[in-house]
Description:
Helices cover 61% and strands 0% of the residues. The protein has one domain: lambda repressor-like DNA-binding domains (434 Repressor (Amino-terminal Domain), Orthogonal Bundle). Helix 2 packs across helix 3. The chain has helices at 6-16, 19-26, 30-37, 45-54, 62-66. By secondary structure, it is mainly alpha-helical. It is built from five helices and no strands.
Amino acid sequence: MNYDYTNLKSRIKTKYTTFEKFADALEIGRSTLSLKLNNNAEWSQAEMSRAMKLLDIPETDIDKYFFCH
Length: 69
């Protein structure tokens, strides 16, 4: 199943200016982040939780960022 990460990408750009800086903060490789944002790899629960904290996303908004179709 593919998800629309448009909101997540926008939030990353707003808070970190580049995907590379966000990948470093999330402690994953840049290519791994790219795979996840392009629906070629799945997000783990731990990664989603860390990403939400880094991006100041409230838990109640997880659907808007990780589960949009």
